[in-house]
Amino acid sequence: MSTKERSLNFIEQIIEEDLKNGLSNDKLRFRFPPEPNGYLHIGHASAICLNFGLGIDYNAPVNLRFDDTNPAKEEQEYVDAIKRDVEWLGFKWANECYASDYFQQLYDWAVELIKKGKAYVDSQTSEEMAQQKGTPTQAGTESPYRNRSVAENLDLFERMKNGEFEEGTHILRAKIDMASPNMIMRDPIMYRILHKHHHRTGDKWCVYPMYDWAHGESDYLEQVSHSFCTLEFLPHRELYDWFLDNIYDDKKVRPKQREFARRNLSHTVVSKRKLLQLVQEGHVNGWDDPRMSTISGMRRRGYTPMAIRNFAETIGIAKRDNLIDVSLLEFCVREDLNKITPRVMAVIDPVKLVITNYPESKTEWLEAENNPEEEVMTYRQVPFSKELYIEREDFLEEASSKFFRLTLGKEVRLKNAYIIKGESVIKDAEGKITEIHATYDEDSRSGSGSEASNRKVSGTIHWVSAAHAVKAEIRLYDRLFLDESPDTHKDKNFLDFVNPNSLKVVTGFVEPSLTTAKEGDKFQFQRVGYFCVDRDSTPEHLVFNKTVDLKDSWEEKGKKEENTINNSLKEINKYFKVTTDEERAAIEKTIGENLKTVSNYSLLQNSLKKNINNNKASLLFSNWVLKYSDTLKASDVETELLHKLYNMSLKSESPFVRLEVLQNLKKDNVNSELFKTQFSEMKTTEKNEAVLKTLSELA
C-alpha cells in the first residue's frame, strides 16, 4: 500500500481485509474492462484512476481488457482510442486482453452448464420473454422451452453457433429461478445469435456471450482478484457469483465483485449512447470535440493528464451516486496549467490603439517574464511599436470611477511597457470605435528603474504590436449544456439544454513568439484564459482552443442568477404595498426582465417548487416565472405541481395573484379545461373590478 498518510477509502478497506484474511499480496490483480463501443469519458477516467491507482499502490498488475462481446456496436477505432486515452493519462497495463480471447472457453463452459441441466435454449420472442419475466413484486413464469432435454439443447446450441438460425430465433438462458426476488436471476440470457463481423474474430462466431456471462468468467481466467464496477451492477453481483460457482476451481483465485458510485459531472452527459447521439446528429464535431466529456475531447481542449488525475483523487470513491460540479474539474485544470504554462499576450477582440507621440518607425523589444511560477525565472522578448491592438472591452469612452482600464483622460499601464493616457477616438459611420489615440510617458517603461516607471496607475492591460501581430483563429469553447443535469428531467430531452453558444470562433492576434507553437502546446493568454494549439493549426493558420477561463465565470454567473431570483422575491413584496397601477407595472416590468435573464433551468424549477405555497408574494412570483421565463415553461412543470400552483393561486386572497393565474391558464393549452371551469366559477363569484375586467377580456 502507498505510504501516503491518508485514510483508506472503502475499496482499499476491502482489499486490506482480504489481505488480512490470508490473500497473498502477489495474488492481487486488477483490471479496467471498457466496451469498445465509443470513446471513454470523464466517468471512465475515474475508473481508470481507481484501478490503475490500486495497481500502483499495491504493486499489482492491472489488465486492460476489452469487453468486445457485441460486434454490432464495437469497432477497432474505439479500441485504439481507448488505448490512447489510458496511455495519455499516464498508466501502463500489464496485459492487453479481450473477452473475445475467451470465446471458445466460454462456449465450452456453456456446454457444460447445458449438460448439468443449468442452461437451456429458449425459442420465445423477446416480447414473450418480457411478459413472462414478472415484476419486482410478482414472480415470473417459466418458459415453455425451459424443460427441453439436454440433447435437444446441445443440438440447438451447436446449430446456433454454426449459423443455422436467424437472429432472434433462439437464445441460451441460464436455468436459475423464475421466482427470485432479484429479477436478474430469473433465467438470464447467456448467448444470443448475431450475424455480425467481429473486429477480431471475423465471421468465426454466430453466437456471442452476454456481458454478465463473459465478465466474471474473464475475470476468473485472468485471475483478477478484485473486480470493481459501478453501482448499477450491484444487483448483478448475485449472478456474477452464481456463474463462478459453476466453474470455480478452489486451487485458483476467485474474483470478487464490488461496486462504487458513479461520479456524474454537471453540465454534461456521460452516457455513451447520448454522446454518440451528439456526434451523429452534428451537435458536436466528433468524439474529440473539445466540448465533449470524452477524454479525447478534454485532451484536445487542453486539459492535462495530471489535472484529470488530481480531479479523480479529489472526488474520491463513494458508495452513493453523486453529481460533481464541473467547476471542480475546471479548478484542477486551472491549478495545473497555472504551474506549467508560459504567459503570452493575445488579443481576441481587437481594436487599434495608436500612440500618437511614439516615433513612427521605432520598434522596441521589451522583456517579458514567461511564467512567474517557475523556480528559475525565464524571459522572452516582445516587440513594441506605435500601433498596437488591445481588447475592445479594455476601453470605454466614458467610464465610472470603478472602471480600471483605459478611458479618455486617464492613465493605464501597458503590460511590460509604458504608461499611456487616452486622448481621443475615431469612429466609423455606425459610431463604432475603430481607433483609440493615446499618448505615452517615455520615462515610464516597466523595469527601467525610473521614478516614472514606479508610478502607480489604476490598471494594467495587455496588447500586441500591430506590425508584428500574428493573426489566429481562436475557438472560444463553453459548457455544452446550460443545465447542470441535462438528462435527469422528466419529459425533457437532454438536447433541449444544448448551449447554442458553446462554441464561438473569432479572429484575434497573438504575439510573434507563438508562430512556432505546435499542436497541444499550452499557454496562458494573459488576462484572458488558458489556451492550447488545436490539431487543425498550421504555421500559416494558427488555431487555438480556449481550455478554461482564468476565473470561474460560471460560478459568478450562477451567483448572479441566484441573486436575481432572491432579489425578485424581495422586490415582489413591494408590489403589494404600492398604490398605483403605474408603480405596479414598473415593478412587474423589472422583475419580468430579470427573470428572462435566468437561464439555469434547475434553479428556476427549484425556485418554482419552493414558492408554491399560500403566501401571495410566492404565488405571484411563481406565476411570473411561467409568464416571463424563456427557459422554464408550464409544459415543463409536473402536472400535479402545476395544478397545485393554479388551485392555490385561484383561491388566493390577492386579486393580483388571481389575475395572473387566469392569464397563465388562458395560454396553458394543457389546462384549458381547468381554465373553463375556473373562468365560469369566477364570473359569478368575483367582486374585484380589475379581476372582472380581465375576465371580460379573456372571455
TrEMBL record:
Catalytic activity as recorded in UniProt: tRNA(Gln) + L-glutamine + ATP = L-glutaminyl-tRNA(Gln) + AMP + diphosphate
Superkingdom: Bacteria
Localization terms from the record: Cytoplasm
Start and end residues of each Glutamyl/glutaminyl-tRNA synthetase class Ib catalytic domain: 27-338
Region called Disordered, residue ranges: 125-145
The protein's name: Glutamine--tRNA ligase
Keywords annotated in UniProt: Aminoacyl-tRNA synthetase, ATP-binding, Cytoplasm, Ligase, Nucleotide-binding, Protein biosynthesis
Entries under InterPro entries matching the protein: aa-tRNA-synth_I_CS, Gln-tRNA-synth, Gln/Glu-tRNA_Ligase, Gln_tRNA_ligase_bac, Glu/Gln-tRNA-synth, Glu/Gln-tRNA-synth_Ib_cat-dom, Glu/Gln-tRNA-synth_Ib_codon-bd, Glu_tRNA_lig_a-bdl
Entry GO terms, CC: cytosol
Residue positions of motif 'HIGH' region: 34-44
EC code(s) of this entry: 6.1.1.18
One MF annotation (Gene Ontology) recorded for this entry: glutamine-tRNA ligase activity
Keyword tRNA-binding: no
Residue ranges of every copy of the Glutamyl/glutaminyl-tRNA synthetase class Ib anti-codon binding domain listed in the record: 342-441
Pfam families reported for this sequence: tRNA-synt_1c, tRNA-synt_1c_C, tRNA-synt_1c_C2
Residues where L-glutamine binds: 67, 211
NCBIfam families xref list: glnS (TIGR00440), PRK14703.1 (NF011291)
tRNA synthetases class I (E and Q) anti-codon binding domain residues: 460-534
Gene label: glnS
